[in-house]
Amino acid sequence: MTVTAILGKKIGMTQLFTEDGRIESATAIEAGPCTVTQVKTMQKDGYDAVQVGFEEAGRLNKPQRGHLHRSGKLFRLLRELKVETLEEVQVGQQTKVDMFKPGDLIDVIGTSIGKGFAGGVKRHHFSGGPKTHGQSDRQRAPGSVGATTFPGRVWKGQRMAGHLGSARITVRNLEVIEADPERNLLLVKGAVPGPSNGLLIIRKAIRPHKR
Question: Does the pLDDT value for residue 211 go beyond 70?
Fold first, then answer.
């Protein structure tokens, strides 16, 4: 199997003791099993990829059931993943957490927790205005957002108040502490993006750092 990524669900965070007595924070992830539901080829679709399903679904509509009938199961979540080669990939094949082993470096992709509408201090870590000399309502104000005559407008991309969170985040080069295929459990050193039960894409690190 040449699929280098797997879908998972964040369970939560915990603490582990190392052999030398240090305590490490870790994230528990329910990773896989994922089933290949569709193979996309350059000749037919214009690119090479595989679509995988995660978490079996109880009810789906007819178009969804028709799309998934070849895989033999109904899935609630579908995602496309890159592959190294399509030579050995077939619909119905499974990928499990045993594709990783302790010590591997991985990238984890998820959607960050949504914070709603936030001001400049919380969203961009602005320092706010002066706290003295009569500035009674400037503590969390953003300050000036542009000049006058030139450019005579606010620059596109200017950091201001707005929606915070609910964005695609990639955390790179996290270390695998443990991979348990029997329980579909992956323990990763450090934190991963998103809330508990949030969907994650776990892939082998594409730019692993040198230790």
Answer: no
As a whole-number percent, the residues of the chain with pLDDT over 90 amount to 57
Q: Which secondary structure element, helix H or strand E, spans residue 203, and what is its range?
A: strand 199-204
Mean pLDDT for the stretch of residues 90-99: 88
pLDDT at 71: 82
Alpha helices in 52-167 (DSSP H): 62-68, 120-124
Give Cβ neighbours of residue 172 (< 8 Å, ≥ 6 apart).
107, 205, 207
Token pair of 95 as six digits: 């990928």
Of the candidates 108, 105, 100, the one whose C-alpha atom is nearest the C-alpha of residue 178 is: 100
> 60, 68 in Cβ contact below 8 A?
yes
State the CB neighbour count (10 A cutoff) for residue 119: 16
Nearest to 5 by CA among 48, 39, 34: 34
The dihedral through the CA atoms of 65, 71, 74, 79 has a sign that is negative
Is residue 175 within a helix (H) or strand (E), and if so which, with residue range? strand 168-180
Q: How far apart are CA 143 and CA 163, in angstroms?
A: 19
CA R_g for the chain: 23
Structure tokens at 167: 């964005």
Q: What is the pLDDT of residue 89?
A: 84
